[in-house]
UniProtKB/TrEMBL annotation:
<dbReference type="InterPro" id="IPR002386">
    <property type="entry name" value="Amicyanin/Pseudoazurin"/>
</dbReference>
<keyword id="KW-0249">Electron transport</keyword>
<keyword id="KW-0574">Periplasm</keyword>
<feature type="domain" description="EfeO-type cupredoxin-like">
    <location>
        <begin position="19"/>
        <end position="118"/>
    </location>
</feature>
<keyword id="KW-0813">Transport</keyword>
<dbReference type="InterPro" id="IPR028096">
    <property type="entry name" value="EfeO_Cupredoxin"/>
</dbReference>
<feature type="signal peptide">
    <location>
        <begin position="1"/>
        <end position="25"/>
    </location>
</feature>
<keyword id="KW-0732">Signal</keyword>
<dbReference type="InterPro" id="IPR052721">
    <property type="entry name" value="ET_Amicyanin"/>
</dbReference>
<dbReference type="InterPro" id="IPR035668">
    <property type="entry name" value="Amicyanin"/>
</dbReference>
<dbReference type="InterPro" id="IPR008972">
    <property type="entry name" value="Cupredoxin"/>
</dbReference>
<dbReference type="Pfam" id="PF13473">
    <property type="entry name" value="Cupredoxin_1"/>
</dbReference>
<protein>
    <submittedName>
        <fullName>Cupredoxin family copper-binding protein</fullName>
    </submittedName>
</protein>
């Protein structure tokens, strides 16, 4: 019986560790030698997460589709180039060099909306 409990404890600890790794992957991380930063937006459960993100000018935003359905990242005002349809695990990135507010949506599922605030 103690072997079963140890196995369950190990499985639980492994699950917690994997969740922590996934959560840390969603945070901003330094990415280039010129000081620019990369920020990630997950596409999952038919939503952009986070829905609103504030970044410094010069930052790169990377969207990753974690849904089983295709999605797009479509600029609502031609503020940046829009993506093609992204399948599961596909990525799309855009560099935001000018301060302002950039709204976007999924052209396949227009209820999915997001905002990038560049300072």
């Amino acid at each position: 019986m103690s072997t079963v409990i140890k196995a369950l404890a190990f499985a639980f600890a492994l699950t917690v560790l994997l969740c922590a790794v996934e959560a840390s992957a969603m945070t901003a991380k330094a990415s280039s030698s010129n000081g620019a930063r990369t920020y990630q937006v997950a596409i999952r459960n038919f939503a952009f997460e986070p829905g609103t993100i504030t970044v410094p000018a010069g930052a790169t935003v990377v969207w990753v589709n974690q849904d089983e359905e295709p999605h797009t990242v479509t600029s609502a005002g031609s503020g940046f180039a829009s993506s093609k349809a992204l399948d599961t695990d596909d990525r799309y990135e855009a560099i935001f060099s000018r301060p302002g507010t950039y709204t976007y949506y999924c052209s396949i599922h227009p209820h999915m909306v997001g905002t990038i605030i560049v300072q």
